[in-house]
Each structure stands twice: as C-alpha cells, then as structure tokens.
Amino acid sequence: MKRIIIIGGLSAGPSAAAKARREDEGAEILLIEKGANISYATCGMPYAFSGVIENRSDLIVVDEALMKDRFNIDVKINEEIIKIDTKKKIVYSNHQDYSYDKLVFATGATSIVPPIKNINSATNWSTCRSMIDFDKIMKEGLATSSKYITIIGAGLIGVEVAENLCKAGKEVTLIEGDNQILTMWQQKFSNFAETILKSEGIKVFTSSFVKEFELDEIGKITGVKIEGKEVLKTDFVIVSVGIKPTTDLLIQNGAKHTKNGALIVNERMETSLKDVYAAGDNVSIKNLQTNEYDYFPLGTHSNKAGRAAGANAVGKDIVFRGAYKTAIIKVFNYTLARTGLNTKYLKENNIPFKTVLTVVGSTPSYYPNAKDLFTELYFNPETKEILGAELFGEVGVDKRVDVLSTAIYAKLKITDLSQLDLAYAPPFSPAKDPVVVTSFVAENIVENNVNQISAEELELIVNGENTSDFLLIDTRTVEEFMEGAVPNAINIPTDEIRNYIDFIKNENKPIILICRRGVRAYIAQLILKHNNITDVLNLAGGMKVWTLFSGKVIIPAPVSINKN
Predict the structure, then answer these.
(1) Which of 14, 37, 107, 470 fits 246 for a cystine, CB–CB 3.0-4.6 Å?
(2) Quick check: 269 and 279 in contact, CB under 8 A?
C-alpha cells in the first residue's frame, strides 16, 4: 500500500490530504500537525476580534474527526516533525518515525519577531498567526483592562486587526517602518486607506521603527518607544511585521529555495528533492507575468497548490501555474484591491507603461446611495496589454478587480475592456461599467485626445517653486470651488470656458484642468483643443483623488478674471 505523509495541517496540508483521498481510495494517508488544531482560518481572526465572526469554533474549517470519518485520513495533532531523511524516505517526529512513498511538505510560515529591546522579557504582546496567538489576543488584548492597543506592521493583517480592534472599542495605534501602509499598493492608494483609518480614530505612524518596550516590574509593556518620536502608552502589542517560510527541514536536505527560504517548486508542486512535494506559505511559485519565482502567501494559493500536490502525490497530473499578486482588503466601509504588476516593479525593470485613472459611479447616479469607484490601470503603450490595476471604493471593488485579474490572465488589451459584455442592472452597475469607462479613457489617451496628470505629479508642482509656471483651472461650479480647491487654482466653470479662450491663450502657460472626478475637465480639455490650445493636462480623478491623496485643499478667495 502506498503511504502518503503530509506535514502541516493548516491550509495546504488538509487540501492535499482530501484531494489525494478523492483520487486514490487505497492509499494510506497521514496528516501530521505540530499544533492542537488543523485547518483553521487565520485570515478570519481579525474579524473575530470585533465580533463579526462570533465564535472561536467558526474559525475551525475542518477538524480531525471529519478528516478521519469522511476521508479516512489518519490525523496526528500535537506531533512535531524534527528531522527528515529524504534519501531513506523517513520522517522523524518527537513521538516516532514514519517511512513514506511520497511526502507533501506543507509547513507554512512563522511570524517574524523584530529585535525590539525587552521583547523577550515582555508578556503582554503577541503575533497574529496561530490559534495560540488568537487565544492570547482574545484573553489579554480584548480584556476590559486593555484600552490602548499598539500594532506593529501595517500589511494586510495589521490593517485588518487595527480596524477590528477599533470596532471593538479599543484605542488603536498602527506603526509601519516603510513610508506607507499596505506596501503592495502604490502610495496614492495606500494614502487613501490611511486617510480612512485616521478618520475612524486610528493613529498611524509611517517611517517609524519601534526601538524599545518600556516594562513595569512584572514584565508588562506600558510604553512603546518609537525611534526619534514619543513614547506611546499601551496595554497590549500585536506584532505583524511579516513571515518567514518554515523550510529548514528540507533545506537541510538540499532543497532548492529562494532568498527568503521559500522552496522552489514546479507546476506540479514538486520540490528539487525526489518524491517530495510542497505547498502553501512555505513555497515560491511562478509569477505568471514576470516568469520569475515569487512569494504569494495567501490562502487561495495554498489551497490550489495543496490540491495539486495531493493529487500528484498519488499519481495524477494536475498543475498550478502560478499567480500575479491579486489582493483585496476591507478598510472600514471601503475596499482596496489590486492585481498584476505595480508601478514600482515597472519602473525598476524599465518596462514602458502608461497609466489611466478614472473615478466613476459603481452604480448609476439616479440609483440610491451611489458610490464612487477609483480605478487605475497600467498598460503597455505599444501592445496595449494590461499590466496591472489598483482600485478603491465602497461598492463593487471586488467585482471589478476580478474582471481585471481575468483580463490580465487572458492577456487582453486595454482597448478590449470596452468590448466586454458585463452584467448590467441599476442595483449593480451603471450602463457604462467603470471597467468600460476606464477603457474608453485609455483609448482617448492612446489617441492623444486627452492627457492626464497624476495627483502625485500635481503635488510636486504645488509644493515646488515653479507653480506660477502653470495655469491651474478648476472647472467646477463657483459653489463647488468655494468649498475647497487646489492651492493656486483659479475657477473657470466648464460651461463658461469658451468665454475665456483669449485669457487662457494670453497666459501662454501649460494648463492643468481640475474638476470633481475628471469628466468636466475632459470636456473643457476638448474645447481648448478645438481652439488650438493643446498644452493641457487633466488631473486624473479630479478633486476626489486629490483630497484623499494629498489633503492640501484651501478655501480660495474670490478672484475676478478679465476674459480678455
């Protein structure tokens, strides 16, 4: 009888075990997990802190009894593998040793603990990755005596924990060493998220490093020292600065791996070691856009990779080709999402690209509670192939990012998006879906009918010494303009701009047009173009983007403009 041993019981391991059994009823399958639980939802933990997920038991997706009864899997918990001999095909645990025919290594990753002074002596802190972590946070971090919570690390988990502890009534501080939170996104979109967090009362420190914990006489953290900044009062600290693949047992056997220790596997999830497969947060898989080995520690990839590894361990031929960094996160009432290559990678690798940004209603303006959807796409200027996308909004972000992720997989052009037959009804989408509108705008950019300037580029101009070299025209109504405008902008509403053609020509400056979301400025841009005024840029996303990104909005003084 063929024996399949699977090490690791979180996500990839149970997926591999169940698939192996579905494909081979006769194999002996052992699942060995060093902890007390298998198949629990680490991604769900933050939402249990706020009570969205009500019971601890709801985080347990599959227990060992189900694996035994339904799939005839021999599950061994609280048993740690301490050595593997891949030549003799034996695994050694702290209880006994086992021979195998095929091995699936699904050990995941462990939380990185930064070298903070006094962290090893402190008691009231935790990482946020295991059920042990969860229980400690629930017991101590959410105790009535714990009012001030500090979170170190503003990645996906850190931000989710911050939101949910805030909802649980805690005063939350979020500290990030990088110059932005959520570094998977470009800074503009991370600024959007940071703005929302701050508006909900969360303190956010970026470019900040925790140097030391101040402890009381019993080893409890009372203060967090940020290098070069104040000491923060705290009752409990959650550390979420990253993870490290748990792969030493196979690396010791000569397994090929990437710089961070993730095991290199092929499409069949085979490692470089004979009869050894690996899946989950401990592996590096191909980035389908760059064709390079990359690191994607997300549950969706763990499950797909585990499924392939389990099937192939019993003789099937299933592939998991890879991924390309699609991600999504809830930030209070908003959603932030991304897919594909980001601008940082494109610039660092000298890949030519153009950008198009739109702010479009996710549902029709006449339908109740209409919300804006911010969409930015990156595409190859020659081939028009879509390279990446980032999105932000309150409604419909998840739907659109999945459309764009599919488009990237299919290697669609930016101009193909306008031809997609997307579902339409007023509760779900406007007649011109935001994805379609973004394609229309991209077509205008390709055909040089419109040129955009980003909020980042405009900020450099506004903050620079040469602001007067540009003519900033706000094309909104007078009432909108007086509620707040970009510094140094003058107000010429779109409907009146034809009356100011001579004035604009006489200024003889490059022009930047601004409106609420970009549409009226686009109309004004076309009017100017037809009047032979061509050195014109449209602020992508208008004041909607500028306000969220920069926050540099002034109440302007009324100005009288001579039309001539």
Answers:
(1) 107
(2) yes
- Give the residue among 230, 218, 212, 46 at the shortest CA–CA distance from 124: 218
Check residue 413 and report its DSSP letter. Answer: B
- Degrees, nearest 5: CA angle 158-59-34: 90
The pLDDT value recorded for residue 449 is: 81
Question: Where do the DSSP E strands lie in 283-440?
Answer: 283-286, 293-294, 327-331, 334-340, 354-361, 372-379, 386-393
Q: Could you give the C-alpha distances from 337 to 63, 182, 406, in angstroms and in order?
A: 32, 11, 14
Three-class DSSP category at 548: helix
Quote the radius of gyration of the chain (alpha carbons, Å).
27
The one-character DSSP state at 138 is I
E strand or H helix that includes residue 244 = strand 243-245
Q: Measure the CA–CA gap between 469 and 497, rounded to whole angstroms.
A: 20
User: Cα 236 vs. chain centroid, distance in angstroms?
Assistant: 26
Task: List alpha helices for 24-117, DSSP H.
Answer: 45-49, 64-71
CA 441 to chain centre: 25
CB 293 within 8 Å of CB 324: no
Q: Which residues contact 368 (CB under 8 A, 6 or more apart)?
A: none
Q: What is the DSSP string of 203-231?
A: EEE-S--EEEEEE-TTS-EEEEEETTSPE
Look-up: residue for tokens 């490290």? 244
The residue count for the chain: 564
pLDDT at 448: 83
Task: Burial-class residue 364 by CB neighbours within 10 Å (0-12, 13-18, 19+).
Answer: middle
Which has the closest alpha carbon to 239: 328, 116, 140? 116
What one-letter code names the amino acid at 531?
N
Q: How far is residue 268's CA from residue 249's CA, in Å, rounded to a whole number? A: 21
What's the confidence (pLDDT) of residue 164? 98
Distances (CA, A) of 22 to 2, 15, 76: 15, 11, 20
Q: 189 CB contacts (<8 Å, ≥6 apart)?
A: 182, 336, 338, 374, 376, 390, 392
Q: How far apart are CA 129 and CA 280, in angstroms?
A: 14
Between the CA atoms of 528, 533, 539 and 543, what dihedral angle is there, to the nearest 10 degrees? -50
d(CA 192, CA 397): 14
Which value, to the nearest 10 degrees, does the dihedral of the CA atoms of residues 260, 263, 264, 265 take? -150
Q: Which of 64, 105, 117 is closest to 81 using CA atoms?
A: 105
- Please give the average pLDDT of every successive group of 10 residues along the chain, which has 564 residues: 95 97 97 94 95 94 92 96 98 96 98 97 97 96 96 98 98 98 96 97 97 96 94 97 98 98 98 98 98 96 98 98 98 98 96 97 95 98 97 98 98 97 97 97 90 95 89 97 95 97 96 97 96 96 94 82 71
Say how far apart CA 193 and CA 187 lie, in whole Å. 10
